[in-house]
Task: inverse folding
């Protein structure tokens, strides 16, 4: 059956979450005719009105990608057969308008200057032999200073609540002393501190660290952004991550950039529009093929194709479409799929405080908390340590919902009368400290197309080859020991914690993090990377790939704040460079 | 100011004055939808489990979450069996959001999660008779609900330790009795602590046990107004979604 062929447009965005939404808005504002193709259904604030339902949203995955339609397969080494992740587990990929930007927590960071120059930094300071043999560190091809204005634009659009630590060259009390230089203060002040945050900050200070408020995409106050989008402040309702925000306080594409794109009159959003292929000829993309809700195939020609469909699908689409050379870990040739990385957990401590009654632990917000950055990146000396990297350490009070927040300590069993009696006391009085650990890239960690398993449409699933290595285990052991010290200094009645540990093998089951990175990495080498510093594909100058798929390795932070910067950078590339001169953008 | 879909203006929320004003004045809002008074409803009809399976599940659940005096009801008193039966009969039990394409392989190493072709409902129907067989073989022909508490706990401990052959695993990386126990423990926890619309957490006694207030909009109180205060311990009679005042 023939496809329905549409009129050519200036640009098509594959996926309308954060990156697709930002690009759509920027291109539409510049007068480009843009079509946004979202595989999932329509969503917006009015979808989230009444359901403070932990079972439905947090456990039965209401807002996440449907594994029955498409999932990923996982193997730990190339010697194994990859098996599908048959249920959503370790990560929570999004679907629907707004994508995972609807149900994220809202923790918003800029990576450090040294994160962008990762390979150079460690080489200059410790010598090139500091890297374990299989590690494949890379510089990003863009510096913190070059990306700073774009990350600032993202923060102003979203209204990020926080306190600058380094502002126009000057250190400022109360912020993160290790952050890269900011050209402006945060657009809104930090959220109200929690009792748990107070206690963490006090203990951290006593131990010589520099605590500061976690930067939050959940507004601390009513805010109108530079584009006139007005939003309410956070209600601290405690139903943040895994849920949509019913008052629009959480920065989410559906309440920020997508309405801006729509009001230009230049943006058309099509839902249940599943893009299966990017069409291309003679080194240029010509458009995309997608199926609609009724199953009809459509052809949407476009001058520019923006691949903005989350890390997994960005890589998968390029592989399915035969664009770029797939990475082969044996030869290390090919760029598409290389440098898969993640976020390293495993370091944390939990404390029970018998005498504290006013945590009000069920109140909170996804990014409400206090952090220390002293043990992240190369903010501390690694000369005598057995690992590279570190992690951002924080305590957060996102709202302890009952099914997922029961803790017992020591020898208390996990069920039965003793357990039941214990949780009666512990639920309201237990808090946890954790870390977002770095995740380096390795030769043998990558993504490609699975040879056996297919999605509901008959296309191969994305196969991930990944596991923990000794470097991460050593790092986590160190971070866990430091976190244990902090928790002890908070003086709990009981606690669990200690040198951190990772599972024997990466386990796809328990939720760990949605911060998957790599596969379409950026850099300055056209053979080893997929995109340049404007996120433009080396091989296809009218294709821009934007996502954490661009990250050559992952830093010790949640990725979205940096990603927002890259999205604005890509938009700049398209609107102010590519459209004027077509062809590769040279910076 | 624009209105939310619940018909309450955001301005009322913004002032944070709900607590001070003694609750939101919500004129004409559609809040609670108490079609069915959970307290007075008849015991729910079983839709997935047989009577025998329900009795087994109930007896096991009552060892996970036992009665502890009149103020501390057991799992079955909280409606956990009704909850679980409803889940098994519904979307989750039928395999919603479950990637069900083959080939199905038992993992050869840890970290691969669930790899059976069975839906949760099929798992329970497969496993429960095997548990009774195990009890019958090891406890002189008895059924689980006939055992004393100590022996019931011993059976659960054996399940938890992967020591009972439920016929679904050929190695420790497969779906062992430990895997089933994890699933069951999770389901019991859900039955105790999910919103009562799902049939468990009867009369909100699960939430009352841990002093969880329930729906944040239940009383129209502003968490925003309370969060920054120290020494304010927010404790209320819990309310679920259906009783919440809403936005």
Result:
């Amino acid at each position: 059956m023939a496809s329905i062929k549409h009129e050519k447009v200036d640009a098509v965005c594959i996926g309308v979450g954060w990156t697709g939404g930002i690009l759509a808005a920027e291109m539409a504002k510049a007068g480009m005719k843009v079509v946004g193709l979202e595989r999932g259904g329509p969503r917006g604030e009015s979808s989230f009105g009444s359901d403070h339902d932990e079972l439905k949203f947090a456990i039965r995955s209401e807002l996440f990608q449907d594994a029955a339609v498409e999932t990923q397969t996982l193997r730990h080494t190339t010697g194994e057969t990859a098996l599908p992740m048959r249920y959503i587990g370790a990560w929570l990929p999004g679907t629907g308008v707004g994508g995972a930007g609807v149900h994220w927590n809202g923790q918003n960071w800029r990576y450090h200057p040294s994160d962008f120059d990762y390979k150079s930094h460690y080489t200059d300071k410790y010598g090139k032999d500091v890297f374990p043999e299989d590690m494949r560190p890379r510089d990003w091809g863009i510096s913190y200073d070059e990306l700073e204005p774009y990350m600032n634009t993202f923060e102003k659009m979203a209204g990020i609540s926080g306190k600058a630590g380094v502002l126009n060259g000057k250190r400022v009390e109360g912020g993160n002393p290790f952050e890269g230089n900011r050209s402006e203060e945060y657009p809104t002040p930090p959220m109200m501190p929690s009792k748990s945050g107070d206690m963490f900050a006090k203990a951290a200070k006593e131990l010589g660290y520099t605590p500061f408020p976690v930067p939050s995409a959940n507004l601390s106050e009513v805010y109108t952004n530079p584009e006139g989008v007005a939003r309410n402040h956070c209600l601290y309702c405690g139903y943040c991550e895994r849920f949509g925000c019913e008052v629009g306080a959480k920065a989410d594409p559906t309440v920020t950039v997508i309405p801006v794109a729509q009001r230009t009159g230049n943006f058309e959003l099509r839902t249940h529009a599943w893009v299966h292929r990017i069409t291309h000829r003679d080194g240029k993309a010509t458009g995309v093929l997608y199926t609609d809700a009724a199953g009809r195939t459509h052809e949407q020609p476009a001058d520019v194709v923006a691949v903005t469909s989350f890390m997994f699908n960005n890589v998968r689409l390029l592989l399915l479409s035969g664009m770029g050379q797939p990475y082969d870990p044996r030869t290390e040739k090919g760029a598409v799929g290389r440098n898969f990385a993640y976020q390293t957990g495993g370091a944390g401590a939990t404390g029970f405080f018998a005498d504290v009654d006013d945590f009000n632990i069920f109140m909170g917000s996804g990014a409400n908390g206090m952090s220390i950055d002293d043990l992240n990146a190369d903010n501390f000396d690694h000369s005598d340590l057995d690992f590279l990297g570190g992690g951002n350490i924080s305590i957060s009070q996102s709202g302890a919902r009952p099914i997922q927040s029961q803790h017992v300590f020591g020898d208390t069993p996990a069920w039965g009368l003793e357990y039941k009696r214990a949780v009666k006391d512990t639920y309201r009085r237990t808090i946890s400290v954790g870390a977002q650990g770095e995740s380096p890239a390795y030769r043998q960690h990558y993504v490609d197309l699975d040879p056996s398993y297919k999605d509901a449409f008959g296309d191969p699933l994305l196969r991930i080859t990944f596991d923990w290595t000794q470097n991460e285990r050593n790092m986590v052991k160190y971070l866990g020991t430091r976190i244990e010290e902090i928790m002890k200094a908070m003086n709990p009645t009981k606690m669990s914690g200690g040198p951190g540990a990772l599972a024997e093998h990466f386990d796809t089951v328990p939720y760990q993090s949605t911060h998957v990175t790599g596969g379409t990495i950026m850099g300055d080498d056209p053979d080893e990377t997929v995109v340049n510093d404007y996120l433009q594909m080396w091989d296809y100058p009218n294709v821009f790939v934007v996502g954490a798929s661009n990250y050559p390795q992952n830093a010790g932070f949640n990725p979205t704040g940096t990603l927002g910067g890259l999205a604005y950078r890509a938009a700049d590339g398209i609107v102010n460079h590519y459209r004027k001169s077509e062809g590769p953008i040279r910076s | 100011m624009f209105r939310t879909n619940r018909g309450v203006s955001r301005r009322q929320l913004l002032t944070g004055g709900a607590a001070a004003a003694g609750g939101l004045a919500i004129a004409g809002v559609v809040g609670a939808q108490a079609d069915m008074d959970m307290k007075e409803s008849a015991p729910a009809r079983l839709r997935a489990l047989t009577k025998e399976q329900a009795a087994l599940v109930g007896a096991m659940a009552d060892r996970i979450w036992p009665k502890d005096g009149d103020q501390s009801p057991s799992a079955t008193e909280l409606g956990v069996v009704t909850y679980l039966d409803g889940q098994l009969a519904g979307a989750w039990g039928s395999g919603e959001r479950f990637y069900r394409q083959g080939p199905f392989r038992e993992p050869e190493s840890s970290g691969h999660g669930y790899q059976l072709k069975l839906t949760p409902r099929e798992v329970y129907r497969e496993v429960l008779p095997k548990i009774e067989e195990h009890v019958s073989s090891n406890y002189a022909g008895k059924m689980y609900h006939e055992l004393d508490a100590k022996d019931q706990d011993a059976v659960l401990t054996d399940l938890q330790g992967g020591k009972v052959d439920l016929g679904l695993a050929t190695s420790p990386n497969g779906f062992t009795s430990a895997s089933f126990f994890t699933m069951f423990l999770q389901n019991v926890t859900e039955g105790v602590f999910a919103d009562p619309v799902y049939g468990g957490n009867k009369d909100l006694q699960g939430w009352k046990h841990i002093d969880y207030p329930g729906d944040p909009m239940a009383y129209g109180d502003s968490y925003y107004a309370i969060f920054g205060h120290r020494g304010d311990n927010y404790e209320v009679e819990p309310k679920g979604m259906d009783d919440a005042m809403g936005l």
Notes: Chain B touches chain A through 69 residues (CB under 8 Å).
